[in-house]
Specification:
10 helices, 2 domains, mainly alpha, homodimer, elongated, Arc Repressor Mutant, subunit A, about 0% strand, Tetracycline Repressor, domain 2
């Protein structure tokens, strides 16, 4: 739903404003959480009135939806072709690359935790997201298993749950103390135990 | 600082009220987060006025401090004697037992994520908590290594970071969808890869 065309005029202006509001939303939901963020603060950072912002995002939920759509759009680029060792290697490399822009890591960490509450507006979104992540990862690991790459000590479904959990947990530790944890290195150590070809 | 004596009179009444407020704090910080919780909501659930509650907890920070002290007190009972296989086995069993009272799991998940923000009042607390957890777990794994129980595929320090991350991440998935993840079973699969005697 995010407009990305570069036509001139009011439509382009709207698209630009939406895009700036979403960038601020990513930052603010990632630091204060959805629970701690207010649309007023987003309007302030945009240098506009709350009423003006509400013309584009009538409430905090609508901004949250746009932020999550933007996150999904960026993710879609990343998670292709995991079912080969090369594809998996690319994903592992992205763990370190993504640290250059920690906003999305913070957003994921804070929103997913908040969304464990059944009352949170993104509860269903995160339930679905994790189910999909587990399914996709399990399918990719099943293909690696067919290629003889998976240790018999685990199953594709179990490895999927574990690696998703490991990345979430390591990123939490990294966000709290960036010098304490090398996310990519730990993920490699972990995966090597179950997929010996990964080092 | 939590009063737990059973003397009668105003002191006992105060202790009881503090204890009830802390229980509500655990629940509310675990669902709405620190950011989303208000002292007014705590007072409402206690059936008392905000002013009355503020006599005991002048602000949200003071309740947060009491909640984290209570959590630490309960944790202290759990994390003894990890440096033997039996001790580690007890800890693993506690993962399933703790699911009977998910309030503390929610509290940990939501507050730790919120506290990644440097402005959060519990930021320093969680930085310190994770540093301590990593050190204690690494020391315990080092002792297991001396007993010949650790696979050479990892180091005690690395295994400590990984297992803490894994538990956090699995509990997040479990909170989102309780049927999707068996935390204890996945932790066993993980540990078995690095400590073969654990099944």
């Amino acid at each position: 739903m995010t407009a990305t065309t570069s036509t001139r005029g009011p439509y382009a202006k709207t698209a630009k404003l939406r895009s700036r509001a979403i960038a601020i939303g990513i930052e603010l939901f990632g630091s204060a959480g959805y629970n701690g963020a207010t649309l007023t603060e987003v309007a302030d950072r945009l240098g506009m009135s709350l009423t003006g912002l509400q013309h584009h995002f009538p409430d905090k939920d609508s901004l949250l939806t746009a932020v999550l759509e933007e996150r999904d759009r960026r993710d879609a680029v990343r998670i292709e072709n995991r079912s080969t060792l090369d594809g998996l290697e690319n994903l592992i490399l992205m763990l370190s690359e993504s640290e250059a822009s920690p906003g999305l890591i913070e957003l994921q960490c804070v929103l997913a935790a908040e969304a464990t509450s059944a009352e949170h507006p993104a509860h269903g979104y995160f339930q679905q997201r994790y189910a999909t992540l587990r399914d996709e990862a399990a399918r990719a690991f099943a293909e690696l298993a067919e290629q003889g790459q998976l240790s018999p000590a685990t199953t594709p479904a179990s490895l999927a749950k574990m690696v998703i959990a490991l990345v979430d947990g390591l990123q939490l530790q990294w966000l709290l103390d960036r010098g304490a944890v090398d996310v990519e290195a730990e993920v490699r150590t972990f995966l090597h135990a179950f997929i010996p070809a990964i080092h």
